[in-house]
UniProtKB/TrEMBL annotation:
Keywords: Membrane, Transmembrane, Transmembrane helix
Organism of derivation: Liquidambar formosana (Formosan gum)
Superkingdom to which the source organism belongs: Eukaryota
Presence of the UniProt keyword Transmembrane in the record: yes
InterPro entries the record matches: MATE_euk, MATE_fam
Protein name: Protein DETOXIFICATION
Family that this chain belongs to: Belongs to the multi antimicrobial extrusion (MATE) (TC 2.A.66.1) family.
Length: 547
């Protein structure tokens, strides 16, 4: 800490005797103070302040999520307008695209979140721009093999035993969706780049304008030009392109990019280890969760009356997608807050962000549970009038609500892990909970115990419950001092390829303020000694405590 308390002994010593100051003694004082801060509960004012800080990020993010959710519903309505075959083909194509493409692109993009969040907190602006360039290149290169897979989707579906007519419609839909991969490779990183700088309202405005244009685009392509299922796909791609263009225009004309702009060079092709070490586990974690729901749909096809169970599952997945908007927004907010505070060397505030967000997540889970339970006999009527589908939906909705009691804290906990650059832990928890706990429970309850449709959702409940418990155990055992050192290492490792001029520029800006006082000079010395030790010891062992 560069500014000791006025009552500290160093503030009373003459400047000519500064070489007698024992640096270890100063560290003892501040270490004890930091330990106290990392063990106490936040005060009411601190909690309210943190709720406000998270709300500034999560509020607009939730609105953006709802807007984008409405876009998906609009597309489904136009597919339904075209006919049952087009609706089935479009739904199958979207499911295939989610599994093989969108989940991968979304997961890889999230790898830049901890780097950008911590770089923003550490005021390493150039690292933001460099990470943006690297992530865009990563996603564009990943989109190429995915595109080739989509080109052969019909063969894959037929090999899996799908109906030929439905597979043909699905193939048409996904062929026209291929450009979407490349637009999302630009859009996802740009959204994260802005959000990690606490810029969220422009995202909401740009998404709202894009979705408002989505309806006339569908009318133009589907109704006027009679392009059918291809028109729905083109409209979805066009809407994402509009979203990107609006967002890019905001970044350019507002000048947000100026501090973090790095001219494209060979630097963006080097130093990928930090990004890949975060992007790959995050991608695995996202894919494991997304794929679970597709697996549930496949299991529904094996139950008695699969048409009703699959239709009910579709309604419930749409419901969970709607509810998921809120914990997801909270997760993105706390990820940004934790990353910013760790980058700014404020572990106590990062811990407060975690505590406040988890309490908020439990409140969201309780609200979702009450909503699904109270609406269980009415919610299905928004989608269908079929008595059997309504009965299945009403039976499963209370279980869905209980799932949200675990899902909200688990999703928020994943945000804390992303903000502190620990996605591998999240991937391991998801793998163990969903596929080693949830899947066996779902199969045994649904088919062995003969509970049918409700048994499958009990499997998800077991997965979400174990996931939440494991996540809470990991978060409660977090050593925030270690996370500070890891944040320094992450930003240092990611900036090793930055141009020397940018480093010198940042040093020259900070140097005058640090030369103004004795404490600043002493801090520069401490920081130099500390960074020198970090080069040989990447993580300082917390077992060595100073007394």
């Amino acid at each position: 800490m560069c500014n000791p308390k006025p009552s500290s002994p160093s503030s009373f010593l003459p400047s000519t005797k500064t070489h007698f100051i024992n640096p270890n003694k100063t560290m003892d004082f501040h270490t004890d103070d930091q330990d106290d801060q990392l063990q106490r509960w936040p005060t009411l004012s601190e909690a309210l302040q943190e709720i406000k800080a998270i709300g500034k990020i999560s509020g607009p993010t939730a609105i953006t999520g709802l807007v984008l959710y409405s876009r998906a519903m609009i597309s489904m309505l136009f597919l339904g307008h075209l006919g049952e075959l087009e609706l089935a083909g479009g739904s199958l194509s979207i499911g295939f695209a989610n599994i093989t493409g969108y989940s991968v692109i979304s997961g890889l993009a999230m790898g830049m979140e901890p780097i950008c969040g911590q770089a923003y907190g550490a005021k390493q602006w150039k690292l933001l721009g460099l990470t943006l360039q690297r992530t865009v290149l990563l996603l564009l290169s990943t989109s190429i093999p995915i595109s080739f897979m989509w080109l052969n989707m019909k063969r894959i579906l037929l090999w899996c035993g799908q109906d030929e007519a439905i597979s043909s419609r699905a193939h048409v839909f996904i062929l026209f969706s291929i450009p979407d991969l490349f637009f999302l490779s630009l859009l996802h990183p740009l959204r994260i780049y802005l959000r990690t700088q606490n810029i969220t309202l422009p995202l909401t405005y740009c998404s709202a304008i894009s979705v408002l244009l989505h309806v006339p685009l569908n009318f133009l392509l589907v109704v006027h030009f009679k392009l059918g299922i291809a028109g729905v796909a083109i409209a979805m791609v066009w809407t994402n392109l509009n979203f990107f263009l609006f967002l890019f225009s905001f970044v350019y004309f507002s000048g947000v990019y100026k501090d973090s702009w790095v001219s494209p060079s060979m630097d963006c092709l080097r130093g990928w280890s930090s990004l890949l070490a975060l992007a790959v586990p995050t991608c695995i974690s996202v894919c494991l969760e997304w794929w679970w729901y597709e697996f549930m749909i496949l299991l529904c096809g094996l139950l008695v009356n699969p048409k009703a169970t699959i239709a009910s599952m579709g309604i419930l997945i749409q419901t969970t997608s709607l509810v998921y908007v809120f914990p997801s927004a909270l997760s993105l907010g706390v990820s940004t807050r934790v990353g910013n505070e760790l980058g700014a060397n404020r572990p106590a505030k990062a811990r407060i962000s975690m505590i406040v967000s988890l309490v908020s997540a439990f409140a969201l889970g309780l609200a979702a549970c009450l909503f699904t339970t109270l609406m269980r006999h009415k919610w299905g009527r928004f989608f269908t009038n079929d008595a059997e589908i309504l009965q299945l939906t009403a039976t499963a909705l209370p279980i869905v609500g209980l799932c949200e009691l675990g899902n909200c804290p688990q999703t928020t906990g994943c945000g804390v892990l992303r903000g502190s650059a620990r996605p591998t832990i999240g991937a391991n928890i998801n793998l163990g909970s969903f596929y080693l706990v949830g899947m066996p429970v779902a199969i045994s309850m649904g088919f062995v115990v003969k509970m049918g449709f409700a048994g499958l959702w009990l499997g998800l409940l077991a997965a979400q419950g174990s996931c939440a418990l494991l996540m809470l155990c990991v978060l409660c055992r977090t050593d925030w001092k270690v996370q500070i050192e890891r944040a320094r290492e992450l930003t240092k490792a990611s900036t090793t390829t930055l141009p020397v001029s940018s480093t010198l520029e940042s040093i020259t800006k900070e140097a005058p303020s640090k030369r103004d006082n004795l404490e600043g000079i002493l801090c520069i010395k401490d920081e130099c000694e500390q960074s020198a030790s970090l080069e040989t010891e990447p993580l300082i062992s917390t077992t060595k405590t100073v007394h």
